[in-house]
Amino acid sequence: MRIHISQLSKTLIASTALSLAGFAAAADALTSEFSFRVVEINAEGEEVLVERETIRPGEVISYELRHQNMTEGAMEGLVIAAPVPDGVSLALGAEVTSVAAVFEVQAEMDPEQEGLEWSTVPATRKVVDADGNMTEEPLPEEAVAAVRWTLSEPLEAGASAFNSYRVRLN
């Protein structure tokens, strides 16, 4: 079975969010680029990122987000968030950022709270066992619905931020 990557990526492009806490941003204040490539291993055993139209279960997609501050001043409080589309699982530990940032994942982590919560990694979730007791377990990669980076420092005028994460097709 093969899946067209564009099906998975349409959701990502439409849902990628950028939050500017406390910054009156003009439409052209921050440019954003999104790209994705399939992770392959070449004949020498090295990892390479390639552009392909289809992907098979078990293969990995690398999503990349680039943002550039087009203003003449620093942008503070930037939060870059992106979904983990249906049909894939986050590959924890493969997230990258070019700037100091706090990385978090979003998932249902507490059955006593409605909705999704954010957590730094490694994340845990609470589950109710067969006897009705609440226990904690590591958050499974397939439970993650979104990722985000909260930039720790302002993005200076003209500076860029690069963030990437990987997902595996279920």
Give structural attributes.
170 residues, five-stranded antiparallel beta sheet, 15 strands, mainly beta, 48% strand, 1 helix
Please give a structural write-up:
By secondary structure, this protein is mainly β. 6% of the residues lie in helices and 48% in strands. The protein is flat.
**What is the number of beta strands?**
15
Proportion of beta-strand residues: over 45%
Instruction: Return the average pLDDT rounded to an integer.
Output: 87
Unreliable stretches: 20-24
Helical content class:
under 10%
The ordered string of helix (H) and strand (E) elements is EHEEEEEEEEEEEEEE
Q: Please describe the biggest sheet, giving its number of strands, its sense, and whether it closes into a barrel.
A: 6 strands, antiparallel
Whole-Å distance between the termini?
Answer: 11 Å
Shape: flat
Specify the structural class.
mainly beta
Q: What's the total helix number? A: 1
